[in-house]
């Protein structure tokens, strides 16, 4: 069977993993999850007890959660090294370092902004505090990422890798929460610009929006969430 990536909408970080699967070029399927609805249903705990996306059903029917673990699974099958590097090379170390930074502090810095947006009862004082805390953290994490980058066209070299996939799923949250103009960080902005024009990212963004774009040919269709839970979810 083809692996199935369970991705969340709207604006999920998993969009970047859809792009990575396009870059990988091996057959895969997708399962679409409304993060504001069905992901919160108790039945979704059979896929991920923490009620988060992304998740991956592997080609032998196991469920893997956590972006870093899914990226590891993809890299291990990337025999042609389209989205990763030989694990025993400095390039691989750098790619994983960047990916880990993006998946931890960089992504986490947005948490107060999401919390402000999702307050169940209006609380202007708390909302303002969360927004100020979130903006400060996001700006600081962008400053640090900018300082980590060299002059390569993509994060870890001259082609997009899994690290770029992780970046592009999350970087757009800067605009979503109107934190600061992306141009404030020229190196990040240049990489984002290249990625946003990349056919795999254009495809992944369109899929996330509910469209049915033509991709590279590797995408073999959606599987309904109920089927994925019934077949591969924990009992
Ligand atoms: N550590 C997890 C975090 C995943 C995560 O936070 N996913 C977000 C979407 S990007 C989510 O599902 N949040 C829960 C929610 O929106 O209720 C990973 O890296 O995969």
Automatic annotation (TrEMBL):
Domain GST N-terminal: 1-82
Matching CDD domains: GST_N_Beta
Keywords: Transferase
Domain of life: Bacteria
Domain spans labelled GST C-terminal: 88-214
UniProt GO molecular function: transferase activity
Record carries keyword Nucleotide-binding: no
Keyword Transferase applies: yes
Matching Gene3D superfamilies: 1.20.1050.10, Glutaredoxin
UniProt-listed Pfam families: GST_C_2, GST_N_2
PANTHER family xref list: GLUTATHIONE S-TRANSFERASE GSTA, GLUTATHIONE S-TRANSFERASE-RELATED
Stated name of the protein: Glutathione S-transferase
Organism of derivation: Shinella granuli
């Amino acid at each position: 069977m083809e692996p199935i990536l369970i991705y969340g909408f709207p604006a999920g970080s998993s969009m970047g993993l859809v792009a990575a699967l396009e870059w990988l070029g091996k057959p895969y399927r997708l399962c679409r999850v409304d993060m504001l609805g069905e992901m919160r249903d108790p039945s979704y705990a059979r896929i991920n007890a923490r009620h988060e996306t992304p998740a991956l059903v592997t080609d032998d029917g196991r469920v893997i959660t956590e972006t870093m673990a899914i990226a590891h699974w993809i890299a291990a099958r990337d025999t042609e090294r389209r989205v990763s590097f030989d694990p025993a090379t400095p390039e691989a170390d750098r790619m994983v370092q960047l990916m880990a930074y993006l998946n931890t502090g960089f992504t986490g810095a947005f948490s107060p902004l999401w919390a402000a947006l999702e307050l169940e009862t209006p609380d202007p004082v708390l909302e303002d505090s969360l927004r100020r805390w979130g903006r400060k953290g996001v700006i600081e994490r962008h400053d640090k990422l900018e300082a980590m980058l060299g002059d390569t066209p993509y994060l870890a070299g001259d082609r997009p890798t899994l690290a770029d996939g992780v970046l592009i799923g999350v970087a757009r949250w800067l605009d979503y929460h109107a934190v600061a103009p992306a141009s404030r960080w020229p190196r990040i902005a240049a990489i984002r610009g290249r990625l946003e024009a990349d056919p795999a990212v254009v495809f992944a963004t369109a899929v996330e929006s509910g469209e049915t774009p033509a991709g590279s040919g590797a995408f073999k269709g959606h599987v309904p969430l109920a089927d994925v839970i019934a077949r591969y979810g924990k009992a």
